[in-house]
Amino acid sequence: MTSPIVLLALIGVLYTVGVYLILERSLTRVLLGILVLGNATNVLVVVAGGRAGAPPLVGGAPEAEMSDALVQALVLTAIVITLGVTAFLLALIHRTWTLEREDHLTEDVEDRSVRRRLEIGEQEDEEELDTTGCENTSDTDEDDEDDEDTDEESALEPAGEAR
Amino acid sequence: MLVLVVAHAVAALAAPALVRALGRRAFGVLALVPAAAFVWILTQLPDVVAGTPREEVVPWIPALGIDIALRLDPLAATVSLLVTGVGALVLLYCTRYFAAGARGLGRFAGVLTAFAGAMLALVWSDDVFVLYVCWELTTVFSFLLVGQDAQKRASRAAAVQALVVTAAGGLTMLVGLVILADAAGTTRLSDLVAFFAGPAATPAAVTAGVVCVLVGATTKSALVPFHFWLPSAMAAPTPVSAYLHAAAMVKAGVYLVLRLAPGLADVEPWRPLVAALAVTTMLLGGLQALRQHDLKLVLAHGTVSQLGFMILLAGAGTRDAALAALGLVVAHAMFKACLFLVVGVIDRRAGTRDLRELSGLGRRAPVLATAGILGAASMAGLPPLLGFVTKEAAFEAFLHDAYGPAAVPLLVLVVLGSVLTVAYSTRFVWGAFWRKPGVEEVRWQPPGALFPTAPVVLGVGGLVAGVGVTGLAPLLEPYADTLPVSYPALLELAVVPSVGIALGLSVLAVVLGFALGVPAVSARATARHPLAPVRAEITWRGVVHALENTSLRVTALTQRGSLSWVLSTIFAVLVIGPGLVLLVGPELGEVRIDRLADSPFQVLAAAIGAACAIVATRVRRRLGAVLVVGGLGYATALIFALAGAPDVALTQALVETATLVVVVLVLRTLPRDIADRHTPRQRGRRLLIAVPVGLLMTGLGAVALAARNAPAVSAAYPSQAYGFGAGANVVNVTLVDIRAWDTMGELSVIVAAATGVASLVFLHRRSGSPPRAEAQPVVTPSTRAGGWLRAARRGDQDRVLLLEVITRLVFPTMMVVSVYFLFAGHNAPGGGFAGGLVAGLALVVRYVAGGRYELGEAVPVDAGLLLGLGLLCAGGTGVGALLLGGEVLQTAVLEADVPILGNVKFVTSLIFDVGVYLVVVGLVLDVLRSLGAELDRRRLATVSRQEVPS
Question: Is CATH 1.10.287 the right assignment for the domain spanning A5-100?
């Protein structure tokens, strides 16, 4: 069993276009890319399901001639989910636009902060290790004494009538 | 037995409410639960000691042979008496320890009670996996209790440390338990021990299992090299330290060693491993305890030392050592809990627990001091306390050849450890109660009668149990008798020692201990620095830091902050991985292309689709690009229709329309053109990734069919659909019955997406229905009250009369069609998805023609309500089928002859489809409400704001 060349070619074109679009910096084009990729994948799944046949309606055609109902159910589900995802992406686009007047993907702030933390953090670690290396046991000691000081105000206070 | 465990859980859940109602007195009520368990165990003792353990088995996971098996044998009875007895006393103690209105008390009470239940279940469980579950439960509860004071950094750090160390040990132990259970062929603990006690060959795997289990016991009982978490955990409130870190949780490791020793003590490397770690711990803990100023830390390090002592005895695997070990467990639980509670009282009433600041407390609080001195004397091993009896027994056990040839060297080390114990006990008593020259007498607020009750009971208990040890012995001996005898003369626990080497060693230990402890008492000695740091904790911190750094580095390496970079990586992996396999493998060569297309229309549709897609990359006009992609969607629908998939084609066409409208709704707020900021080189690079992906997917599509070598799973779907699902439309029956779980998942995704859209737009409050016509501000005097659409009263220039007329005429028709699709879908193309989409499009039409108030007129309900109802219908069908005795989501067919209508057939999956319908309508409504109506409102608001100043 094989598939018609036309559909295989279409899949190739759609995936190429979809990937090309999704790699753009413009959010609108990213959205378009996702739509195209969604279509490409749905066609791929239907193609993988086998030769086209009669609609899978019992009584309309002999069972052997029917097209595969399973891939159809899967694709149907995927189509509706794509609608939900599209709506969500649109809400993101709207939000980005409201906040930054920008339709472009900007560098992720969190990721940048991770890099910064890495640069700063390495120095801090070394300092901290140094102190712990000197007097470790007393360190716990002091922690505990600190507890004593703050215990008074903290969540679990000494019994009330003590005061 | 299970009832008692469950009672703990119930009490734990009720604890916050109890605390709210009764304040700190609630602890007294909660104490009744472990007290009840304590009494129940006492009533069972005669049978248990006589050799008939109580057992209870409730099937849990029959497929894996795991049952909730509880078993009360002498060992379990002894330890559970301690767990429940000390538990009840500690809870009672809490009624006075905490301030009346302390924050977080409800949570604390619940967690502490839950811990008591978990610990009880741990001791009782007779299934290794139930034991493991309880083991980890105690770890988690311990984490919560140590971190009770979450505002303090030290507290949080200690909690995390305890969690990581003990949970890591617990997981290692799980591996060991799996290995052992597999080797023994049973998960039942008693059978497992019996199996290994029998003449069984021990394969190498068992050795590994033993080591893993011992790692678990070592971490839990704070043995070297994992001992450091226990002193840190002293950040917990003192009742927690008394219960978890003295009487109960840390004893879990000792318990496990005791439990397994009859079967596994002879497996290498059990004995050398246990002996080395335990004896090191005993000495190290003792040395550390001598150098602490904080009374609680003196006790904590003392506990580490004693845990080493106990495990050393427990792991010996001889009858006499086991007897001494179990006796020591009892003695230690009583005296250490007593001492911790004494420190708690001192802490609360004197305001400090630093022994350099406490002076003259003995005279001020004689009762408390008596309890403390009783506890410390038992710890030091002075007659006639239980601590003395058990230490004597321990020396005897080594004289009776525990650990064979290693007995004598170990005995020397143990005596050395006992010297240290006596020394730090002396230091504790002196530090807490004695009058110190040059130290101001402590301010002391009398603690009342109830506060010191628990420590006094425990302190006196040590005395009573010591004097009456012959009464205690019958409880301890049955367990010890399960172990091999190592010496002709059997050890007996006795308060009056027989004159011999053991007594001599005891005297020696006490004398040397005093000699070491009394000078340590002097003011100069207290200023000594703690012992040179033990590397374990530094190593631990280093490992944690290294882990965090590595994670940061990996994150920084992979998450570059640029979406296209991340996507490029993914696509590159896709092309390189599966792409290479495809190129190298034989499948591609087997593809035989036999036809260009199935029909001319297919060629046409594919050509249109491909053209649309390519054009979409070049269009700069935003709406233009969207329309072109829409064209691709319709072309795809055509392809589906030609492929014999009318349902998919229908849905695709409807979704495409809905998508177009929604996209336009949002993009109208954006500039007309997409800003092109890409250089040709960037485009080239993108093509470099895109083209291989396209080729790869074409290849996969070609191979997919050729590679098929088994009949399709869906081959039987048509007959199943008609036979079980009672529907002719196989796709629809697949959705609502055969693969209804998939659809359930999909509905959840849709609900999440709709919620996400609404949240992103509304930000603060997402519930509520679209505004009705009444809420509309009157823009123009309403002269035409009865228009074509009720809410269509926007400024006249915005109105399109033709659209309003068409809407008025078309809307009811569309709704009828949508309902038709819903009902007919079971046997003809249609179904909940298509029906819901048609209804959604009808709403779109109303909205486009009449504006946002018209939307409210069309559906005057909350979109969230529709989504929720839909999920309820779908889920309800599943639960309903289950309740009626079927499988989840099974379809039932109800058939009846109704007058006039004739034979009516009702399929329950229709309710499921109604759920699908509602969810889809809810999605469209939510999107229209957020991206349509709400954006309209904001735009108007912005416009009017701009107009006001001018």
Answer: yes
